[in-house]
Amino acid sequence: MENPLLAFTDKGIYCEQAGVYLDPWKPVDKAIISHGHADHSRWGHGRYITHERNVPIIEHRLGNIHSTGVSWGESFTVNGVRFSLHPAGHIPGSSQIRVEYKGEVWVFSGDYKTGDDGLSTPYEPVRCHAFITECTFGLPAFKWRPQEEVFRDINEWWAENRSEGKTSILFGYSLGKAQRLLKHLDTSIGKVYTHAAIENMNEVIRTFLPLPETSRITKETQRDELRGHLVLAPPSAHGSPWLRKMVPYETATASGWMAFRGARRRRAVDRGFVLSDHCDWAGLLESIEATGATRVICTHGYSDIFSRFLREKGLDARTEETQYEGELAEMNSTEGAEIT
């Protein structure tokens, strides 16, 4: 296709007409950022434009940056190109980026999920001609259970551990997953303690969203204080000396990858709960259909398999390479590795 509205370059997704990049992975002058995860919002850009709820998140993560926040559906124009941000439902402040020029509309979804998690602004389909979609879980084998059932299992696991005098350690990425877990934990079972990396992010998110009460774990926290209660920690804390004060404990991970047989064993945790902040197979297909797009560009995840399926359905679908990692970035992140 000649001169597409959005092009994939070595720096990121580029709108040449506006001179603007979307979630670039190399430093650029002007960037529109979909959300705060490290593979989508990187340090070094001259200017950041993002949803107003994402501003405190990326400023916390990236430090002193030049950032501007906009609200949902608020349009802004750069050299004749009209941009707006729309809820992606992935994590708090996550957006789809709509780009319109001379009647042609493209939407970059970033990371997204169609289910309402009760914390993030729910996903809204945006009509467009071309849709750029992630494919993190783009296989028919991925089919999410209702989150109410998953949280019932998590709370039952915690209650059982408490009855046995054990501390429950639940691993989840410090931005998004940890707050979603916190939102739905049954605090009548006990108290929720947090690793510093998660509590620091909780403090940021509490500036615009209410969250249940938590207690930060410090060097002064004693083992007996934790017994029977639940500890939220980032994956980077797994296997660290920081866990020694928790003995006796059981560990669990909440991730879409727990749907894979053997994933719990490879992660060396006692339990795995299938809970993802990304679409499953059906969610991807339903969201694409809702956009009305006839052109679909598939990025990170099972992009080859997913795009082939879309072509068989009659869509103009192809893949593009990016440096986005989806839930792998969240699982493998070293954020919070400095144990305090």
UniProtKB/TrEMBL annotation:
EC number of this enzyme: 3.1.-.-
Classification via InterPro entries: MBL (IPR050698), Metallo-B-lactamas (IPR001279), RibonucZ/Hydroxyglut_hydro (IPR036866), Xnuc_lig_assoc (IPR026360)
Pfam families, alphabetized: Lactamase_B
Segments forming domain Metallo-beta-lactamase: 24-122
Enzyme type, top EC level: hydrolase
UniProt keyword annotation of Transmembrane present: no
Listed GO MF terms: exonuclease activity; ligase activity; RNA endonuclease activity
Domain of life: Bacteria
Keywords carried by this UniProt record: Exonuclease, Hydrolase, Ligase, Nuclease
The protein's name in its UniProt record: Ligase-associated DNA damage response exonuclease
